[in-house]
Amino acid sequence: LPTLYQIYPVGDTSTSSATTSAYFSSQAMAAVAFCSASYGNLTACQLLANLCTLQLQRLVNQNVRSGSACAEFINLESQRTSSRPGFASWAANMPWLYYGSQQASLVLADTSLTATYASGSTLNLYLGTYSLSGQFQGFQNASATNQLQLCKDTLAVMQAAFRFGTTYLQEVNIFFYDETDGGIPKLLPVPVLNTALLDSTNTLVNTQTSNTNWQLTRRFFLVDNVAGKTSLTDQVRYAQSIQLTITPQGTTQAGLIYPPLLTITYADLKASKYYGTGASVKVKPHTCLGIFVSFSVAYKQTSSTSSQFTENLRIAMGVLSAVGFCYAVLRTWFWARRAGVLSLDAVLVFKLLAYSASAFANAFFITIFGIAFYQLVMYKNQGIFMLTLPSDDTFLLSYLASATVLKFIDLVHIFAMQCTVDIYLIDWERPSQPSAAAQSTTSYFYPPKEHLEKGDLLSGRLPDVEIQKPTNTPVSNGVSGTGVPIWRTVLVANEWNEIQACRKTYPTFTIFVAMLILGVIGIENIASRDPFVSLSTNPLRYNSPSNPVFRLALIIVVFGFLGFFEIAFRVLVWERFFTDDLRNFADLCSVVNISVFVLAQRNFGYYIHGHSPAGRADVNLPGIVSILSSVQCDAIPRRGISPESDDHTYLMALPSGLYSSLERLLAPARNTSGAMNMSSFLSHETGQAVNRFLIGFISRDHPNGLHYRIVRRKPLENILDGEFDDTSSEGLFYIDDGNSFGDVLFYGNELSLFIFDTLLFALINHLSNSLILSGVLTWAFTTILAELRAHLDDGNNNPEESNGTGENLNNKNFHKQRRIGGISECGTRSHHAHTDTANKIAKTNCQTAAKHGESGQEPRFRIRQECGRGQLLTVCRRSQRVQAAETVRYLFIYCQFTGKVKMDIK
What we know:
This protein is an alpha+beta fold. Among the domains are: 3-78, no CATH class; 104-305, no CATH class; 306-382. It is built from 26 helices and 23 strands. The strands form 6 sheets. Strands 5, 8, 10, 11, 12 and 13 form a 6-stranded mixed β-sheet that branches. It has a 6-stranded mixed β-sheet with strand order 14-17-18-19-21-20, sandwiched between helices. β3 and β4 (136-141) form a beta hairpin. α2 crosses α3 (69-78). Pfam families: Meckelin. Keywords: Membrane, Transmembrane, Transmembrane helix.
């Protein structure tokens, strides 16, 4: 009878490494004999059931006499002809060890449990314990005695495992304690899933994913240091992992659960392997073994609930993706109209893919946030237990990673579009006549005039204003005769670069405050698997691990709240009462008499009308003061294209002939490869020709018949951000809210940038579970993107940007930007002159402005100190008119341009 006495390693399907147990040799045959029908000794039957459990309830050779203790037990059980009432698998006068022919799926779907459980209820689990020799030791409450946990801890920590809804990770017959509606207590059996059980085909059936072939049992042990003895203890078996799985019946049966399932995984400790040959193993029962041992309580969805969740997820993703694709097709159609693409080509397909990536990223983002937020709110607020977390959250990582990658593709597309736009700076200034060398200062007085037209100011008709022309100096003589000065155009180009990476939110502030809210305040603790909300953790109590779905929901909520707060504060407070960088740029264009013509696509762009109402901008300080005074008093025409309108920023749907005309003007300056040749550009006076062409088009005085109308967009066009009107023969200038040209800057793409920051932070946090690492990497990535955006723009040297004198403005020196922390700080002005000529012009004009400002009669502005190197220039502003007040910022652009003086506007 050697096989009856043998102990097999866990998971070993062969008999070559079996160990003959001294205890089995002395007890097995006696237990078989006295458990037979002839004697019917129940204690002997309990001993035989214990021996079978120590043999891991193997069913191999179950039809062979003396094949194993389990074979003997099954043989004796079959001799009993009756069973316990209500339990078909429990033979009379025998221990209940196997569920027999009952399928595990039916056992686990039993609905006889009638107790209703709420979050925080105690899960009463009772253990019927037997000694190794078969004596019944009585019932023990597992939630009170913690017998299932080998590694002991504080009582509060161990008892947390049996608090209902708490996901816990930390020789016995088990019964489940259930109290019926009538208040009568009864014991209901809890099935045990032994992962080391071998069936009759020598297969580990209990490790299979499907529960169809599972063989459920009723008995298990925690530590076995008896069966492995020969003379000394050669091996010890222990329960390496114990998991109690609880499955709710579903949302229609709130608070009801199916029978819990106790899953046991055993492991061996061999003396020859861990302690050396001939050594013995000594282990005290119910103590931590110094190796990995876990006890956990998990809550699982039913297969139908899990399938329904997956189906709902796919439906939501499919519907939103379909809507997103339709929107991508619409955006591609708008782009084709704007770009003048009439047939299907590779570029059009690429645009469709790029817009689809953006739409799918948004669809994924909305879907995973909706599901995560729903799970968080419903799980934390359920009074009666009915909702569990998804059994598998791998869907979260796949969708989150996909959304992040797709949104990054969208950003690359945005970068490519922004860095390939054509920008034309239209200079409306007319060359001034140089004064006589001997004339030091000439004063002109003009009587007041009630009605002035655009261009009247500074051309001989000013309302009671004295204009003083400064004496020619060696420096001014050295640069005289150059036509219209370039400093205004350079200033506008630099200002444009300053606002390239300006955003509606501040990523550094957003990331830092999000880390503060989540980590320091403790919002991230809400993501625990506990069914209640807590902002802090107690080291003396058990703290459930966080759930990645909950963490995602909290991260998006916190980022969304911060983004909404920042944008609302910027739009409602900062831009209204302090400074608006885009409108300031438009005001600057009006002050310096330069318009910005942005050609985003072939037939579409943005226009900032900077034609000064006074007609001139290259004047001294009293002239600027006079202009501002006239603006305040409405004594000059308004700043729009139409003299009666203040609308000065537009979206342009251009006639198809405009782009062709520009290409013809630029053709002489291109080389054989199509690139712009700078020397040709200057020698052929292409810059002046382009400037005159655009002035004629804007002034509606173009000889080629290129015309446009000023209209307002229809509501549907505003919603869809597209145009439906045909502009092949006549263009349309759409009046906007003043900052539509932000679409070619970071400012107008804040939503895409912000969603990418949020997705990147959430993805890194999901992979690392570290707020610090997520914050640092996200901040570094956004910084790199901002710097890359600035670098790509600096390298875009298109000589089309001209001041009308043929001088190129896109020299890298003029486009060099100064940034703080890698992110453009809106409102920071740091203009630098990079040529000796620019320095001389700025210094001369600055000193002249200071000289005339001190002797001027206008009380609205006062210079406290002379503007010079390293000195402070203070201007007191009393004007209440917003339009005039905003333009005062750029009064002393000469001094500011040099970077050698500071300006303080009060």
